[in-house]
Amino acid sequence: MAEEEKEEIKSFKDLGLCDELVEACDSLGWKTPTKIQVEAIPHALEGKDLIGLAQTGSGKTGAFALPILHALLESHSKQGYKSAPVFFALVLCPTRELAIQIAEQFEALGSGISLKCAVLVGGVDIMQQQIALGKRPHVIVLDEADRLLNEDFEKALDDILNVIPRDRYTYLFSATMTKKVKKLQRACLRNPVKIEAASKYSTVDTLKQQYRFIPAKYKDCYLVYILTEMSGCTSMVFTRTCDATRLLAFILRNLNIRAIPISGQMTQAKRLGALNKFKSGECNVLVCTDVASRGLDIPSVDMVINYDIPTNSKDYIHRVGRTARAGRSGVAISLVNQYDLEWYLQIEKLIGKKLPEYPAQEEEVLQYLESVTEAKRLSQMKLKEIGGTKKRRGGDDEDEDIERYLGVKGKSSKKVKRK
Ligand code: AMP
């Protein structure tokens, strides 16, 4: 009998979590723990350090947040609420968006126990962050942790390790075990238990993956065809460059497809603004660079389209991991043109399978050619026009104008304040 068949389905209570947290999971609609949660939580509750290898969407935030909250509640009950520990846990993660999402999960899980959480990230007013710290939060979340793994930042990492208590629990979670992560493991963990919730580069079974060989000149046309065929779905369209996200968003808008771009070039406030439009359903197509392939918590994406094939095949795994999450089904379609073939073959090698072709009649697809070509011409003109305005105004912010035109607004962008 296969190992998995022998396993009975576990509940959050079976994992040893206290009633408050079992209730919190229930109120979030988390019916049963995910694989990484089943494997990680009991070890963490025993006081072990952990290394967890799990993909985006596997529930890994819960896998480390729940034991932290459990330990916090235990120390509350031992020491009484007044002397309850502040600065109980520090979470380091790579991006600002991820920091915010992790904090949101902590707050959701801790809403019944008055949990205080502070997010300290780059690009936010320092006073605001001091006030957040002054409220003596239980959990602090910091961004840009991946930079700490670069050699230049070794000293910064040492500084952090020197000021946090030696007697502590450390959990290290990553989608892949890279050399840098291994190094960090040696530096900070004591006798960790290693948990792997999925084989290194596998994709989940509920994900339907397809490819389509197309001539580069028909790429936009195929994209529009697929998005139109799947118009009731939420989709993420991945491009290689920030400029391409904007041009594509313009083209799609022109064709009445509710698209919104997100890229690393946008300010933090605008990235969150775009993400919120997508999350709220106001836009159902998110045109993005790989900035959105990792970490961002975007629920229920039905389809991922690789408009540009990733040059690094591991990015493919991250991108398609945005769909078919937590047991749901999803589709990933890769548009492969004559220049991408090499990269596409590397992806098939990495995932260890040949994918089926996306079925479409080329004549049907090409019915869109005329309108797509016109939409592209108009979009390029509009982008040029906005660029021209920028020159006339003498170095004003072109990106600002383009994003405003696309309806991407930020709440408090420093860039907006002009004298
Ligand atoms: P993560 O891998 O931590 O980014 O989590 C991905 C998504 O899965 C988040 O939206 C979580 O709210 C959700 N999630 C985490 N654990 C569970 C669970 N046990 N059951 C259902 N959804 C979950």
Tally of alpha and pi helices: 17
The overall number of domains is: 2
Largest sheet geometry: 6 strands, parallel
Overall CATH class of the largest domain: Alpha Beta
Provide the gyration radius in Å.
Answer: 23 Å
**Element order, helices and strands?**
HHHEHEHEHEHHEHEEHEHEHEEHEHHHH
Distance between the terminal alpha carbons, to the nearest Å? 71 Å
CATH architectural designation of the largest domain: 3-Layer(aba) Sandwich
Portion of residues in beta strands equals: 5-15%
Shape: globular
**CATH fold name of the largest domain, please?**
Rossmann fold
Alpha-beta classification: alpha/beta
CATH superfamily heading of the largest domain = P-loop containing nucleotide triphosphate hydrolases
User: Low-confidence runs (pLDDT<50, min 5 residues)?
Assistant: 1-7, 411-419
- Oligomer description: single chain
Strand order of the largest sheet: 7-12-11-8-10-9
Average pLDDT value? 83
Query: Quick one: how many beta strands?
Result: 12
3D architecture notes:
The protein has 419 residues and is α/β, with parallel strands linked by helices. It folds into 2 domains: 194 residues, P-loop containing nucleotide triphosphate hydrolases (Rossmann fold, 3-Layer(aba) Sandwich), CATH 3.40.50; 199 residues, P-loop containing nucleotide triphosphate hydrolases (Rossmann fold, 3-Layer(aba) Sandwich). 44% of the residues lie in helices and 13% in strands. It contains 17 helices and 12 strands. The strands form 3 sheets. It has a 6-stranded parallel sheet with strand order 7-12-11-8-10-9, with helices on both faces. A 3-stranded parallel sheet has the order 5-1-6, with helices on one face. It has a 3-stranded parallel sheet with strand order 2-4-3. Helix 3 packs parallel to helix 4 and helix 11 packs across helix 16. The longest helix has 25 residues. The protein starts with a helix and ends in a 14-residue tail after the last helix. The N terminus and C terminus are likely disordered. The site of adenosine monophosphate (AMP) has 14 residues, from helix 4.
